[in-house]
Amino acid sequence: MNSGAYRWFPIPALLLLVLAYLVPLSQVLMISVTDPELGLGNYALLVTSPSIARVLATTARICVITATAALVLGYVVAYCMTQARPAVRRLMLVGVLLPLWVSVLARSFAWVTLLRREGVVNSVLMGAGLIQSPLPLMWNEFGVSVGMIHTMLPYAILPMASHMRGLDPALMAAARGMGASRAQAFRRVFLPLSLPGVIGAGVLVLIFSLGFYVTPVLLGGGRVRMVAEYISLQIQELLQWGTGTMLATALIAAIGLLLFLLSRAVGLRALSGAR
Amino acid sequence: MTAHVLEADRLCKRYGTVAALDDVSLRVGGGRFVTLLGPSGSGKTTLLMAIAGFVQPDSGSLTLDGAPIGHLAPEKRNFGMVFQGYALFPHLTVAENVAFPLQIRRVGKAETTERVKAALDLVQLGHLAFRMPKQLSGGQQQRVALARALVFRPNLLLLDEPLSALDKTLRLSMQDELRDLHGRVGLSFVFVTHDQGEALAMSDDVAIMRGGRLVQIGSPAELYERPANRFVAGFLGRSNFWQGRVAAQDAAGFTYMAGGHRLHQAGKPPGPAVLVSLRPEKLMVLEGAGGPANQVSGTIATASYGGDSWLVQLDVDGLGRMQAMLPTWRRTPPHMGEAIRIGWDADASVIIDDSEGDTA
Ligand SMILES: Nc1ncnc2c1ncn2[C@@H]1O[C@H](COP(=O)(O)OP(=O)(O)O)[C@@H](O)[C@H]1O
Ligand SMILES: [Mg+2]
Q1: Complex confidence, ipTM
Q2: What is the mean pLDDT of chain B?
């Protein structure tokens, strides 16, 4: 049969996937339960080790702050984008996408020049006489969050804007026609209908934030340790392969859970009547 | 309850070079069912949206019972509105959708429940109160939209092509229901459609629009029998047109020459040249002697069967191609090339204005 041949076309891609992802991943899983000895000893560290607990707490805190801030700021941008005239909307879209073409490394260094002790922000504020001594703007969670929020904004804006554009503008007009003010129509109609987009964007941002490496390293200066940096430290500096792979596995599990929630949110989107 | 009177006076609205509304004046009141009828792009939606407050006219005024409302935001006008796609809130149940305008008005809980129930009963949807809009058929969604637009006792009900999304059978039964509802609620309706049949069947008054202008307004029979110009005559049903020159005039009417025929027309001629319009169903096939004042001969070019009648295209010497409706019950089927005599009474044809109605 002729069409039978097409069945084999995905095979190279599948092979690549197996070799490049599944094999190493299963090895990571293997090491996490065999090094230094067989068992779940490494996983017990998740609850017994104070330093791991501290890293996880820092990671969770920064991720939640990043996601919340990116969602709030991004919602405003996404809303303005959907309300704007087409020409303005295209311009805004370019503005949102532009940073994605600049590497995370370059953007993080840009923030370093802005936020360090003698950086642009501090010198302007001191020059204006608003502060006497430089503010500690980086090498702390504040600096890391600022850098991460900046990086995450497009990932928050784009899914929300695309969801909002799917909402029928006649719904807002209908609400107004029935006596609702602009604000009432927004709160009672637009906001609830846009929530699935917010949830989707939120999960996406959380997933990306969990694995952040470059930004926390550069803007945290070793004082703010997130889980990705900690894993690399365990494996490359301390040669604690068991601990490192265990954390990597836990990270993947957490992301899997979030992805599951995301798929639920997408189901919710279909229910909420987006076109 | 006396119905409110809405008056639009000389409304104009331009979008770039397009005149969406061009000097439109309209009076709606007395609980009448007023239909805006026109081809797509003729400004119907723009006029409705200007009345509702979503479109700000460039000039002209809007008053309700004599008080200006042009400056009011849409939510202050208290007009019920049914949108083309119904615009039901997908995250709210049927009952919550209908309750929405009452909650905005801070009506008490008990009264809200009661009025929502009454509104849903009015459109026979009481049993579906807790469904989501997605779970309803097109006709049911349509009725929810109506209930929601009526529940807050609006001053006026505006409907933008509410039936165009429904299939034909459902559309016909919704036409009856909407007429019936109109009779019961005692409100004036402004109804938009591009469907001539719908407009003629449902309305007390039809306002015909074209290119942003209001071409003619009147009862369906007035518009059909006395179209003001060529556009209205051609848009509302079929019509034959020909030009003539007035030859003589008397008390009963006048005689004019057209294509070598001497023809008679009731009424007074508007000038030396006239444009005559004649509905195909007013043409009679003549057999034997006697008959109407105007008689010509022709040859059948095509005939198409329409159940109750044949629509026949004839070639008539001097007058060109004409259309006639021949009842199917009285005749053997017409065939191509057949020579027939046709005729019409002096008051069957009408003299109309030779314009398309879109220029001043
Ligand atoms: N928001 C708008 N921007 C630009 N042109 C518009 C807008 N709304 C309507 N028009 C134009 O005005 C004319 C009348 O439109 P509309 O009132 O929607 O017609 P209808 O409802 O009779 O089909 C059309 O030519 C349309 O293209
Ligand atoms: Mg329209």
Answers
A1: 0.81
A2: 92
